[in-house]
């Protein structure tokens, strides 16, 4: 990680702004733009700060960047973007993309994305990425000029390969299962967490009603009045405390969501491997059949049933010259095929090697991040309980003075 | 003429509130003045050709001289409790008779003989009898003693005595007639104050009752969701290696939170909800007591008015009026004393109940 960009440069997504503009179909639309600020980190500065460079990007440009990276580095588990639309909402959160809380959480997610890319040993060196950070104008054209869209594998081809591949590397098959499981368990967890949050919100908020009624009741009481009144105040505090608690929990949910989306990135790498492996198997199969054809023509034996064999039996054999020509063509093809096969094999092995290296790196990152997230969740719960203890201790005192 | 038992020496000690259902022998600080211990338990279902009903076992232990024995065990059904209450109301129209659990619950979710319903009723009946036992006047009532000690057949024959249905109806008619007369003109200031207080109190206690039920409902829904939350983490830990332990740890913590939530809910339903409900019923009872006092006063006032108009038969009237005046005074005093006692009890109950809620919550968060 010595040379990674993150060490040399501070990157932040510091602001979000609503804009209106015309889109590709010349229709007016509102969108949010995010301000990316970068500043070089001086290793031995004399108190001088480097100037801050900044530019504005919108979400669709982030998407473009990520697509480019996924296609260009198929052996890398590319960090995911924060969700496009709010998902796993519980009733208080709105599902509106323009909602300020959503925009804020997205801003943080985008910053996180940039930091992840910048700290990746391979990705951080990409020129397009660098330009994304530094060059506002003309970046889109630059990306398109790389022609990366052409390199992208079609979905259909990938699906086909998944079903037909015969000998994928076992580790990738396991990894695919793992990423499926991870995705399903995290999304289940997030759904239930949202429901739990909803209910907890309800419990806290109803206690707020106590505050009001206690206060009204205290008006007619003499000895109990003060105790009731102050207890009511504590009930209000209790009811209000849930808002901050749940907001903090949203950040935890976002951390889990990142890994939910990472599962998709893992699957993409597995798919690429399956595609390459399938390609390889097809090429090998093709080569084998050509070799057979060649042999048959050369020796005149028909080992396997073929239409050629049948037609030649029915309509007479070809002339020796025709046969020679065919054999020549086939021999050339076979030679080409063998070279292709060799290079495909090499490609495949390289891919497996470098992909697996990145996957190991990813695994470590994931374990570290998730552990930290779980710990921070536990800490949050403890803090919530401590607040609860405080409020109810106070309330108890008020009650006992009634 | 209904007899009014003189309010004897008002017990100076802090009234002991039977807020603990489980251990009725638990005492707060203060001198042990209790000499009558009652429990209501063991509901049993009886099926006859005509009806099905539940009886409860009522066990009494006492050191009082007027009881022939020191221990009694009888079985009583809800009807018997209703009878006792109406006898007490008859004998002491301006004393605050504790509430009985309702005949049925309108909410409709609880079946007539469901276990939950029976248990709630049993607890309320237990409370009812203990409140009477604590009352300096009511606990010496003769019908109360018979209720606690008589065998079933003895009780039914005793019930048949006393003012018949018709005469009781007559009393009710007179009562309604006098209440129609509207606000009593000579009502002492104190009782007007009490009336105003009770109107607001009744409103607030009803609200609190609703709020408490709502909280219970929300907590139950929260508990239901939490039950699902823990196992997901365990499921996840099955796919992981490094973080499996952490995930399992979280799963077990969530399960512990679930159990703590259950305890919290139980605390609510055992302590807060019954007390709030009891005081909702109490506020209705108090309005009734105030009305009856007004009626008694109304009788006096109307006689006084009549006297002012009829100069003849003065002597006869004045004797009657004298009696009525006494009656009114006794009624007022009884009510005032009982009111003070009730207020104190209420305060004590509220304080201890809400403190209990607070403690429950503390325990919950500590766990």
List the helices and strands and how they pair.
The complex is a heterodimer of chains A (402) and B (367).
Chain A: H1 5-8, E1 9-22, E2 28-40, E3 53-58, H2 59-72, H3 100-118, H4 127-134, H5 139-145, H6 148-151, H7 155-164, H8 170-218, H9 225-299, H10 307-315, H11 320-400
Antiparallel strand pairs in A: 1-2, 2-3
Helix pairs in contact in A: 7-9, 8-9, 9-11
Chain B: E1 36-47, E2 52-62, E3 71-77, H1 78-91, H2 115-134, H3 142-149, H4 152-160, H5 165-180, H6 189-237, H7 244-309, H8 314-366
Antiparallel strand pairs in B: 1-2, 2-3
Helix pairs in contact in B: 6-7, 7-8
How would you concisely characterize the structure shown here?
Chain A: GO terms for molecular function: phosphatidylinositol-3-phosphate binding. The complex is a heterodimer of chains A (402) and B (367). In chain A, 70% of the residues lie in helices and 8% in strands.
**Helix-strand string of chain A:** HEEEHHHHHHHHHH
**Topology, number of strands of chain A:** 3
Question: How many domains make up the coordinates of chain A?
Answer: 2
Mean pLDDT of chain B: 76
* Global morphology of chain A: elongated
Distance between the termini of chain B: 61 Å
Count helical runs of chain A: 11
Q: State the low-pLDDT regions of chain A, or none.
A: none
Q: In what order do the strands lie side by side in the largest sheet of chain B?
A: 1-2-3
Rg of chain B, Å, rounded: 26 Å
- The protein's oligomeric status is heterodimer
N-C termini distance of chain A: 64 Å
Rg calculated over all Cα atoms of chain A: 32 Å
Structural class computed from helices and strand pairing of chain B: mainly alpha
What is the 3D form of chain B? elongated
Beta content of chain A: 5-15%
Keywords (chain B): Coiled coil, Protein transport, Transport
InterPro entries (chain B): AH/BAR_dom_sf, PX_dom, PX_dom_sf, PX_SNX7
Family (chain B): Belongs to the sorting nexin family.
Coiled coil (chain B): 307-334
């Amino acid at each position: 990680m010595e040379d990674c960009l993150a060490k040399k440069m501070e990157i932040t997504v510091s602001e979000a702004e609503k804009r209106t503009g015309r889109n590709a179909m010349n229709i007016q639309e509102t969108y949010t733009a995010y301000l990316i600020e970068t500043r070089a980190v001086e290793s031995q500065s004399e108190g001088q700060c480097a100037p801050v460079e900044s530019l504005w990007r919108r979400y669709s440009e982030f998407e473009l960047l990520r697509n480019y990276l996924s296609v260009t580095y198929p052996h890398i588990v590319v960090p995911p973007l924060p969700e496009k639309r709010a998902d796993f909402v519980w009733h208080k959160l709105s599902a509106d993309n323009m909602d300020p809380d959503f925009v804020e959480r997205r801003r943080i997610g985008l910053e996180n994305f940039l930091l992840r890319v910048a700290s990746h040993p391979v990705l951080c060196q990409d020129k397009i990425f660098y330009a994304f950070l530094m060059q506002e104008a003309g970046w889109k054209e630059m990306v398109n000029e790389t022609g990366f869209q052409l390199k992208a594998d079609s979905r259909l081809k990938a699906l086909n390969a998944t079903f037909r591949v015969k000998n994928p590397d076992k580790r990738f098959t396991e990894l695919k299962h793992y990423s499926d499981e991870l995705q399903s368990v995290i999304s289940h967890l997030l759904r239930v967490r949202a429901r739990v949050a909803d209910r907890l919100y309800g419990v806290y908020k109803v206690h707020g009603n106590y505050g009001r009624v206690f206060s009204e009741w205290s008006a007619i009481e003499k000895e109990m009045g003060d105790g009731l009144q102050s207890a009511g105040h504590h009930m209000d505090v209790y009811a209000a405390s849930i808002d901050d608690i749940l907001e903090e929990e949203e950040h935890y949910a976002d951390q889990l969501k990142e890994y939910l989306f990472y599962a998709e990135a893992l699957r993409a790498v597995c798919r690429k491997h399956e595609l390459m492996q399938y390609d390889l198997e097809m090429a090998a199969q093709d080569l084998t059949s050509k070799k057979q054809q060649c042999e048959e023509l050369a020796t005149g034996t028909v080992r396997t049933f073929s239409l050629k064999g049948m037609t030649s039996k029915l309509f007479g054999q070809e002339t020796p010259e025709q046969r020679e020509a065919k054999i020549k063509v086939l021999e050339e093809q076979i030679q080409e095929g063998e070279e292709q096969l060799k290079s495909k094999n090499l490609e495949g092995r390289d891919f497996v090697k470098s992909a697996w290296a990145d996957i190991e790196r990813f695994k470590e990152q994931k374990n570290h991040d998730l552990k930290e997230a779980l710990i921070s969740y536990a800490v949050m719960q403890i803090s919530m309980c401590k607040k609860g203890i405080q409020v109810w201790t106070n309330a108890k005192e008020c009650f006992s003075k009634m | 003429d209904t007899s009014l038992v003189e309010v004897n020496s008002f017990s100076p000690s802090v009234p002991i509130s039977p807020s603990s259902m489980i251990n009725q022998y638990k005492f707060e600080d203060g001198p042990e003045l209790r000499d009558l211990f009652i429990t209501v338990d063991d509901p049993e279902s009886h099926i006859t050709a005509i009806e099905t009903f539940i009886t409860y076992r009522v066990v009494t232990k006492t050191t009082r001289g007027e009881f022939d024995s020191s221990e009694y065990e009888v079985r009583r059904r809800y009807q018997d409790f209703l009878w006792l209450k109406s006898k007490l109301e008859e004998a002491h129209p301006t004393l605050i008779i504790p509430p009985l659990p309702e005949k049925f619950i309108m909410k409709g979710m609880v079946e007539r003989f469901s276990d939950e319903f029976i248990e709630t009723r049993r607890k309320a009946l237990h409370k009812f009898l203990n409140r009477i036992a604590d009352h300096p006047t009511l606990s010496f009532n003769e019908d109360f003693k018979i209720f606690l000690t008589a065998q079933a057949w003895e009780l039914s024959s005793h019930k048949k005595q006393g003012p018949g249905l018709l005469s009781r109806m007559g009393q009710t008619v007179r009562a309604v007639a006098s209440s129609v007369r509207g606000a009593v003109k000579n009502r002492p200031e104190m009782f007007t104050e009490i009336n105003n207080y009770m109107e607001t109190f009744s409103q607030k206690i009803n609200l609190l009752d609703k709020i408490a039920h709502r909280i219970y409902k929300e907590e139950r829904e929260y508990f239901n969701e939490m039950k699902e939350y823990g196992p997901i983490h365990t499921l996840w830990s099955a796919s992981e290696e490094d973080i499996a332990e952490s995930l399992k740890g979280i799963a077990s913590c969530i399960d512990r939170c679930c159990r703590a939530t259950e305890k919290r809910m139980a605390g609510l339903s055992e302590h807060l909800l019954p007390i709030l409900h009891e005081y909702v019923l109490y506020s209705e009872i108090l309005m009734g007591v105030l009305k009856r006092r007004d009626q008694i006063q109304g009788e006096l006032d109307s006689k006084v008015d009549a006297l002012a108009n009829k100069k003849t038969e003065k002597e006869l009237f004045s004797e009657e009026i004298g009696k009525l005046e006494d009656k009114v005074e006794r009624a007022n005093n009884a009510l005032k004393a009982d009111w003070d006692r009730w207020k104190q009890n209420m305060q004590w109950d509220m304080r201890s109940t809400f403190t209990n809620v607070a403690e429950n919550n503390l325990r919950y968060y500590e766990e």
